[in-house]
């Protein structure tokens, strides 16, 4: 196996939509509503001459907001531990949240290669919103639309370069 690429981030930012786009699968459940318990989902993908495995995270459980957040942390931890490269996904329409900063922290501490995907930027005219996310301190920041594919080629070029 050439490598494992993990997609992490808080719920509803578009991780599963990105997973589906990268893998050409429809296995990940895309849903607006929290409350579905799922494990991580794996699928094979290729880009340029590289084959790799993509991991979608975000199985999370219903419960108090404390349980909810600790579950997200736990999922992120597992995914970061097993990954070779990590894609942190944030929601370009909602702006930065404290949970984004926490997961970014976990990723930086791992010392593994990582990139930031600012998702839901469906038009290149809105690429400027990545500026709001630069304070996360990631060197590589990509405006993307998991729905229509804007920016995902550039993202993948960078990610597979780390494999
Ligand atoms: P996850 O919880 O992070 O896995 O997020 P999902 O992939 O389930 O997506 C959550 C919601 O955001 C769904 O309604 C998606 O259709 C929507 N969404 C995901 N990516 C995009 C995008 O690039 N643009 C827009 N406009 N909506 C998106
Ligand atoms: Mg999901």
From TrEMBL:
Where does the chain bind GTP 1? Answer: 9-16, 56-60, 119-122
Q: Name one GO biological process term.
A: ribosome biogenesis
Ribosomal protein found in the keyword field = no
Role this protein plays: GTPase that plays an essential role in the late steps of ribosome biogenesis.
Q: State which stretch of the full-length protein is shown.
A: 1 to 163 of 437
Q: What is the species listed in this Swiss-Prot or TrEMBL entry? A: Schleiferia thermophila
The entry's keywords: GTP-binding, Nucleotide-binding, Repeat, Ribosome biogenesis
Which parts of the sequence belong to the EngA-type G domain?
A: 3-163
Family assignment? Belongs to the TRAFAC class TrmE-Era-EngA-EngB-Septin-like GTPase superfamily. EngA (Der) GTPase family.
Q: How does it assemble?
A: Associates with the 50S ribosomal subunit.
Q: Per its record, what are the GO molecular function terms?
A: GTP binding; ribosome binding
What this protein is called in its record is GTPase Der
């Amino acid at each position: 196996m050439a490598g494992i690429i993990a997609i992490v981030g808080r719920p509803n930012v578009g991780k599963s939509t990105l997973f589906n786009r990268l893998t050409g699968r429809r296995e990940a459940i895309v849903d607006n509503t929290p409350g579905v318990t799922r494990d991580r989902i794996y699928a094979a993908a290729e880009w340029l001459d590289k084959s790799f495995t993509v991991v979608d995270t975000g199985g999370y459980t219903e419960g108090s907001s404390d349980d909810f957040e600790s579950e997200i942390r736990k999922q992120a931890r597992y995914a970061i531990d097993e990954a070779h490269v990590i894609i942190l996904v944030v929601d370009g329409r909602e702006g930065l949240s404290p949970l984004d900063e926490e997961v970014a922290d976990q990723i930086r501490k791992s010392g593994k290669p990582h990139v930031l995907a600012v998702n839901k930027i469906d038009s290149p005219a809105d690429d400027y919103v990545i500026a709001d996310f630069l304070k996360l301190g990631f060197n590589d920041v990509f405006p993307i639309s998991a729905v229509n594919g804007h920016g995902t080629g550039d993202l993948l070029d960078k990610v597979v370069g780390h494999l």
